[in-house]
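Many introductory courses stop at the sequence. We go one step further.
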Amino acid sequence: MRVMGHPANHGHVRHLQIARRSSRILDGRSTASAPRGCDYLVLGGGASGSVLASRLSEDPTVRVVVVEAGGLDNSWLLRVPAAGFIAASAARFNWNFVTEPIPALNGREMVWLSGKVLGGSSSINAMVYTRGHSSEYEAWRQMGCDGWGFSDLLPYFKRLEANVRGEGPWHGGSGPVKIRPAAPRLKICDAFLEAASASGFPVLDDLNCNAVEGFGYYDINVDRGVRMSAPAAYLRPVLDRPNLTVITGAPALRVTIEDGRATGAEVLIGGEPTRIEAEREVIISAGAVKSPQLLMLSGIGPAEELSRHAIRVLVESPGVGANLQNHVCYRPRYLCSHPVTARRHVEPLGALKAGIAYALARRGPLAESYGSAGGFFRTDDRLETADAQVVLISALPPNPALNATRMMDMLPKEHGFAFTIYQGSPSSRGEIRLRSGDPLDSPIIRASYLSHPA
């Protein structure tokens, strides 16, 4: 199949034919054993891409190729749960996006975290497993999204879970994602939940029971002391399938389109734009920032925006890059006069005990998320459901203003804690726009936080 691409900005494009079947993870920085085609080409190996690749490759008659811009998720920082706060801040696992100046925040630019590694943000987040309230999904249904109400989706939520609670009304017991309640055993967490109860909030054993408000220990996706990321749950168990190939370190440059049909993609492999053909479908699963950028670079998006960057308009679609929304958060920090926080686990004796417990049994403080306790609450009693979320950070997190790069600089120097307070269901809407026609440039992120009066 011949594919009409637009390689002018990236030199010669190598045209690859259909690959033989072999199961492997390839390093896209090298041209060795590069794939030559497939039936389904998945651009982005994050949470959704991992699930899609696993499910599609269940059919042994089709070939599935996953292309991921980031590297392998084999660093201990991505596996040890307590190291999650370091992983989230590490430049090598992150796209390092920064928003445009935000008017409502006095012109501040803000970091936009997004995982650039196999597994995407599922490999660097706090492993907190929450679904949101049923009313959120019912709102989708009321907007015309039939099949997306809570009763429609609950069977699928249960299907993905292997929850230690077992099969029940709210949870599944035999799915691929291992789920358990956090168990930090820290006095600061106990004090936090006691304070929530004293303030009139219910303290729950399960924050995924669809309560209007409540505090407690979060469920976390951790299995036997190791982060249960999307690749851990969906990709690695099926890598022996001969029809599945994963390529890391290979940024997608654009989708190739011929006669109105996506026929493949140009991918940077071994430093050269390489064309991979897809006999059936090209699936873009590159996240909220990179997916619209990739569409626009491929000629799909607002005509005015594409023309501004000399990109041929193949499909005019004004909605591409629009309706961007994110949960803006605030993180107050507090010093603590007593040694009741996770800081004690980085002191010499505490670190030794934690290391031994983890090395011998994958247990102890290193097997826990740094955001173990929290809850959902209403900022206005007139609201029917919670509109805000809080996560207790059981030690002082790294100060982003310090731009720390060494691990020792990221560890807390004194006892303290922090809260991450999220705005739920924001009404403000932003947009993604192209910075240039170069796929390797970061796009423009106009977050527009707090721009809506509600």
